[in-house]
Write a structure and sequence with these properties.
By secondary structure, the chain is an all-beta fold. It has strands at 13-21, 24-31, 36-37, 46-47, 54-59, 62-67, 76-77, 83-86. The strands form three sheets. The chain has a four-stranded antiparallel beta sheet, with no helix packed on it. It is globular and about 35 Å long.
């Protein structure tokens, strides 16, 4: 059984908040090909899990190429180092 948490939209980035607590949140993003988030900061560390396709996450200037796999090794994005993401 497949559950779609967020749908893709042409030329867009779509997000859906799943959990929002005082200690952190969980948000699902769908990036159309070629779309990305610029360098930014967040109040909490972040964990990236690629569910489909591939992405490049840059942390402190160091790129990390991620691909969707059943268990994908994902870097922790420290809140003190502004990351950016591209699909």
């Amino acid at each position: 059984m497949s559950t779609v948490l967020v749908d893709y939209e042409d030329g867009s980035i779509v997000s859906r908040g799943i959990v929002k607590k005082a200690g952190g949140s969980v948000t699902v993003f769908a990036f159309d090909e070629g779309k990305g988030l610029g360098e930014h900061t967040a109040p909490f560390d972040a964990l990236v899990q690629v569910l489909e396709g591939e992405a490049e996450i840059t942390i402190a200037g160091q790129p990390h190429r991620l691909q969707a796999t059943p268990i994908s090794p994902s870097p922790i994005l420290p809140n003190r180092l502004p990351p950016k993401a591209n699909s």
